[in-house]
Amino acid sequence: MNAMDKTLIDHLQQSVDREPDGLYARFNDVAFTYAELDRQSNALAASLVAEGLKAGDRVAVMMRNSIAALSVIFGLSKARLVWIPVNAQQRGEGLGYILEHSQPALAIADADLVPLIQEAEPAGGLKIIMHGVSSKASSLDDILAANILFDGIPPQRDDIFAIMYTSGTTGRPKGAIVSH
Questions:
Q1: Among the listed residues 77, 82, 118, the one whose alpha carbon sits nearest the alpha carbon of residue 102
Q2: Where are the alpha helices (DSSP H) in the chain?
Q3: Could you report the per-residue pLDDT of 124-159, keeping only the tens digit for each?
Q4: Smallest Cα–Cα separation from 80: which of 173, 133, 8?
Q5: Is the CB of residue 78 less than 8 Å from the CB of residue 103?
Q6: DSSP state of 152
Q7: pLDDT reported for residue 124
Q8: Could you give phi then psi for residue 68, rounded to 5 degrees?
Q9: What pLDDT, on a 0 to 100 scale, did the predictor assign at position 167?
């Protein structure tokens, strides 16, 4: 398989196999290895699938830059869920529009951003997993700390990886579909 035929998850697995303790990223002077990213993303993928999410379900993510955010992106990808990145600065009606239009099955958000989602979300309620809290049923931190293997079917190149909303300068934001 040449590099053009590989998905993000294929590249991660290749790096884990080659150099598990190699540096994937550094954030605020904290080193994050390929093996750590693989373990955390496996834990999230397994948890979300155990909660009943299935390939193609959409997950809105409203998080600031962090190591946990990296694990969320890779975990969603492994579980073949569609990442809906939401700008942490988004508020009110604009946030409500994205949440209504994208129809996420779940949201993952920094704890301080959860009230914004709850105020803007469409009727019916949206389950939210919070980052920055622990010892709660909806704690991203606790999920990422688990050591759970994930052996689901890996994403294919043509599967939807993300729906990224445009700025909406000429009208309502549009969801641009990005494949693996």
A1: 82
A2: 8-18, 34-50, 67-78, 92-102, 114-120, 140-145
A3: 689 999 999 876 667 999 999 999 999 999 999 999
A4: 8
A5: no
A6: P
A7: 62
A8: -60, -35
A9: 80
